[in-house]
């Protein structure tokens, strides 16, 4: 059965999104060739009737990270779409968990190597100099807890603790929570690996490097990206990151883990886990777009084949037809006067059919 699929984007970051238009164009084609209707929609567009879609694929919804209020609006939008019965490639629980970079503490508690860090609560005072007296950090990274594409990320020497660093922390705390972490200088010399998983399996990876003299690997700051054979130790670290996720990891269509590898004897370091609307670098790997399309379509329940006996009365056939319609059964075929073949999603439709027709001969799954 043909599905209506919306690729979700935002109004902002036009210059960046243009770089991803080729990825989304290829993805749209990959989904469309299976007979689905695919179009791009902006999540803040109040004119969109979201109930008209079967699935929303989160792609470039980056402006949710403008501020905590915008983030809450985004989460409210996601919940409201779910309440309409529309599937999200990443449900609202995943979005809430991943939109705040405090999730790194979760990984740390499960043995994943992350930068030393602390999370500062919005509106509360914090003395950076006093804190750093207890830390061996030479340099400090400060960033909003809700943010992306390195927006608001600043690097300071510890000697600035009583001056510019303290002032910037206070400025950010007026807007929201703040992440304070040790700077990993290996990103300048070794770059940052992005390991992309689709439907729970490793798909491909890239190596991102900052421009000389900078520490930000993003393209908008002059960074460079290239396809890469991920070193075994980095890939193993990424696999551990995937396993360390909460139980919702089984529902993830895709995930990206950004890691820096300082080399032995040090372990690879998880910098970020991008589960929501990450750049998946589809252009950098042959077959990645097709794998993503299959992963996206995998959110739909697979079809099953049901044979229902003893459907002799016409009103019983009508009841079965209405049940099929209510539960999105793809196809119903009457065979003779005493048997109906039903093709559809496994689950509630079978239950309703059994309610009206208890002599269910067989249900095989999948079709």
Automatic annotation (TrEMBL):
Cross-referenced SUPFAM superfamilies: alpha/beta knot, Glutathione synthetase ATP-binding domain-like
UniProt-listed Pfam families: GSH-S_ATP
Gene Ontology molecular functions: ATP binding; glutathione synthase activity; metal ion binding
Keywords: ATP-binding, Nucleotide-binding
Highest taxon of the lineage: Eukaryota
InterPro entries to which the protein is assigned, alphabetical: Alpha/beta_knot_MTases, ATP-grasp, DcsG_Biosynth_Enzyme, GSHS_ATP-bd, tRNA_m1G_MTases_N
Occurrences of domain ATP-grasp (ranges): 104-301
Protein's recorded name: ATP-grasp domain-containing protein
Organism: Cymbomonas tetramitiformis
